[in-house]
Amino acid sequence: MSRTHGQTRYAVKLHRRVVLVLTEDAMLAEELLARKKLAQEIAGRLSDRALLVRPGRVEAVVEELQNMGQTPQVVGRS
Amino acid sequence: MPDVDFTAADSPALAACAASLARYAEPLLRSVAGRWLRLRTQWTAEELRERLQEALANPVAVDRTLKSLSPAARRLLRLMAIGLQTEWRLRALADLLAVVDPGEGIAAVRELLEAGFLYPQLAGRTSQLTSIATWLNQAPGQPLSVVVVPLAAVRARGEDLGLTSLPHDDLATATPQEADGFEWLLRLAVAWQFVREGPLRRTQQGGLFKRDLDRLQGHPLLSTAPAESIGAVPSPEMLAVALAKAEGVLHFEPEEIRAGELPDSWEDGLGTALLSLWSAWTGVDGWDPQRGGENGGASPAAVATLIVAALAEVPDGAWVRAGHVDAWLEAVPDVAEEAGTSFLLGIGHQLRLVQATRHRNAWWVRLGPVGRAVASLSNRVTLDRPTFEQTLLVQPNLEILLYRQGLTPPLLARLTRFAEWQTLGLACTLRLTADSVYRGLESGETLNDIVRLLERHGTRAISETVLGSLRSWASKRERVLVYPSAVLLEFRSEEELDRALRQGAVEQKVSDRIGLISSEDRIDYAQFRLVGTRDYLAVDERCVEVNGDGLTVTVNEHKSDLLLTSELRRFAEPLPATGTDDRPRYRMTPATLAAARTQGWDTKALNTWFLRRSGDALSATAKLLLAGNEAPASRLEQMTVLRVPTAELADGIVAWAETRDLIRERLAPTLMAVGSDDVETLLARLASLGVRVEPG
Predict the structure, then answer these.
(1) Which end of chain A is more exposed for a tag (fewer CB within 10 A), N or C?
(2) B661 and B682 in a common domain
(3) Around Cβ A58, how many Cβ atoms within 10 Å?
């Protein structure tokens, strides 16, 4: 953390255009990861309820979530 | 979307004219431009094109050049404006000219092309166009289309069409029947929902796959006759798809038809929506009011345009017998016997262009307000709005009963987004389902929006059962959030992230050190110092280095991304931080590489990964650990090594025929391996040369 003109500035690394899935709870994230077709689109798990999706695979993920009977909210779709 | 504003400076038709002009060879360009501009010899072809394009949108230039045309050419322009269509098939123009310029063929089309009021549709053509006559000569072999300069069409509005008058009568006691105009808006909405459920697949010829065609033709709403029908509309499902295409409600892609957007024109009320539909109708290709989807015969767009133009010549309020319109159309080549009646009592009535009445066992028609607006080239028509808003009833079983008397196009569009159409009639029904509400929410509606709309237009309050279902479906949507393009900020510590969260600099905590901001423009850069940036749609950065042991991987945190850690953990294990620096390190071990292999990470996959992430191939050590067991078996042998003082001497021993076969392998420039059975022979032959060998 650094200070400029008395203001605190956080040293951060910026990750742009990340495809992310956030679930209501950890159990739901486990459920999603147990789905083979969905798991292969997941590149990693940032926390117990945050899943990182492979770049460019958002449509496939939304489609598979809907096939699972989920109703995912796509936030900020352009 | 139909191009209904012919006066717009940014009309797509003007862009189409410009695209054609770009393919004109210079002599043809100069010839056309000469009709509009006083040419200067120093103007380049590019300058000429620019000046001509400006003139095409300039009312003064258009009016001046219009005067140089023959009356027949100006009549044709006016008819094109009545058709509210900027792109026309040559066949349709020939049909129009058969009435307004009989016996002259397509002379007026040629005149308009040569004068720069029409432009050939040259999409897909790569060669330059050298003459209009050459292009027109292709007409017998292929369907040709032209684009009209929109401003010219609309400014020819004063031209007398010289049409033969239709017989008419006042029919003082007639009761006009006028459709509400919603039938085809509703069908477009149903078509949109239908295709949104599953795209229609197209064959290579552009038709539909049989299964999808059967699905469409068997659709319970699209394939049935309209509720207010006074005349037949054949294959209504095909017309719905064709109109939906023209309105942009459906997108025709090479392999399938997908749902587009509901038309913006619906937001401006019924009059605007109907004018847009009229334009869509004259742009429909491959549907006929009598034969449905079959092609051939006179152009339906031309026939409809002529009918509207002819009815507009009749005094206000007077009625025309539909049969007389059929007779009047006989001048059009190949026109079907009852083409006029079919259009007027079918789609013409449903689009609210005409009012109809029964008199002496015959149908009589006259233009309604929409038809008159079309004929007068006004792109605006005001229709009475419903006097009441409460026009629907939401029943506890989640069915919505909708009375069309209070319907408006904006209400229709909103309902279409979150409720499924079940029946169409004077009273329509829709159903709220988990899926329909979910889709509505995904299209931008909120739960509050939906409830407010249903309450505002409902005749009764919404029951608690319905409200409960809506809330439950909406909350289910909150269970999984998908961010297609999130912005994440990675902090140095959890404490810093928590502090930033409290200050509102970050919207949501994603993990112990990562926070989320919904869009990049919400980042307050004054609060952050960027120590690295990664764009996940850009090419991967080289962000790891492999140490000298070939097994330890050091991460460059400034360049790494969030995917890297999970990728690394698939074949390496993290190492504890060392005192030298705090850069993360991972090590590949036999165990981690064996685990990676079971998950499909073979030498090829790892090699690709290392080339992508480090710029170098997988190290030999890692290959040994990963796939050493796949190499052919090695052999442990005992052999005698002969060390000679110079490489030159070794060269001689390897080359001399007497000793060559006794050397098993040259190990180094001065080292040679000798089989134990050959040692004595080799020593003897070297001794014969005087070469001394001492025991080691």
Answers:
(1) C
(2) yes
(3) 20
pLDDT in tens, B282-322: 998 878 777 776 667 889 999 999 999 999 999 989 999 99
Q: Is the minimum CB–CB distance between B498 and chain A shorter than 8 Å?
A: no
| CA separation for the pair B87, B573 (Å, rounded) | 66
Are B273 and B317 members of one domain? yes
Burial of A68 (0-12, 13-18, 19+ CB in 10 A): middle
Q: Beta partners for B530?
A: A12
Contact B432/B408 with Cβ under 8 angstroms? Answer: no
Q: In this structure, are B668 and B626 located in the same domain?
A: no
Q: Do A11 and B529 touch (CB under 8 A)?
A: yes
Give the per-residue pLDDT at B138.
Answer: 86
- Please report whether residue B301 resides in a domain: yes
Q: Answer for the pair B381, B275: CB distance below 8 angstroms, yes or no.
A: yes
Phi first, then psi: give them for residue B645, nearest 5 degrees. Answer: -70, -30
Let me know the angle formed at the C-alpha of B693 by B692 and B696, rounded to the nearest 5 degrees.
155
Q: Which of B219, B197, B621, B179 is nearest to B405 (CA)?
A: B179
The tens digit of pLDDT for each residue in B522-568 reads 888 888 998 888 888 888 778 899 998 999 999 988 888 888 888 89
Within 8 A of B473 by CB-CB distance, chain A residues are: 71
CB B166 within 8 Å of CB B325: yes
Substitution target from A31, A42, A71, A77 for chain B, most B beta carbons within 10 A: A71
CA–CA separation, B394 and B402 (whole Å): 9
Q: Which residue has the higher pLDDT, B67 or B477?
A: B67
**Boundary-marking domain end, from B601, B630, B659:** B630
Q: How large is the average pLDDT for residues B338-355?
A: 94
* Identity at B460, one-letter amino acid code: R
**Helix B300-312 vs helix B270-282: angle between axes, to the nearest 10 degrees?**
130
- Regarding whether B144 and B203 lie in a shared domain, the answer is no
Contacts with A45 from chain B: Cβ below 8 Å? 566
A15 vs B534: CB contact, 8 Å cut-off? yes
Of A7, A70, A76, which is closest to B518 when you measure between CB atoms? A76
What tokens does B542 get? 């080289």
Would you give the end-to-end CA distance of chain B in angstroms?
95
B296 in the same domain as B203: yes
The answer to whether A12 contacts B491, with C-beta atoms less than 8 Å apart, is yes
Longest dimension (CA), chain B: 141
How far, in Å, CA of B299 to CA of B90, rounded?
Answer: 10
3-state secondary structure of A51: strand
Q: Which residues lie below 8 Å from residue B104, measured CB to CB, with a gap of 6+?
A: B72, B97
- What was the pLDDT predicted at A78? 52
The answer to whether residue B430 is domain-embedded is yes
- Indicate if B600 and B643 belong to the same structural domain: no
Query: How much is the CA Rg of chain A, to the nearest whole Å?
Result: 16
Residue B677: inside a domain, yes or no? yes
User: What would you measure as the largest C-alpha separation in chain A, in angstroms?
Assistant: 53
Average pLDDT over residues B606-621: 92
Q: Is residue B40, in this structure, part of any structural domain at all?
A: yes
Quickly count: other Cβ atoms within 10 Å of residue B48's Cβ: 22
Whether B619 and B650 share a structural domain: no
- Closest Cα in chain B to A74: B482
Mutate to test the interface with B, among A13, A53, A59 (most CBs of B within 10 A): A13
E strands in B404-549: 420-423, 427-431, 480-491, 508-509, 514-517, 528-535, 544-546
User: Do B246 and B319 lie in a common domain?
Assistant: yes
| Domain of B86, in residue numbers | 12-155
Give the total number of structural domains in chain B. Answer: 6
Pairing, β B480-491 against β A73-74: parallel
B250 SS3 class: strand
Mutate to test the interface with A, among B492, B503, B536, B613 (most CBs of A within 10 A): B536
Final residue of a domain: which of B469, B498, B513?
Answer: B469
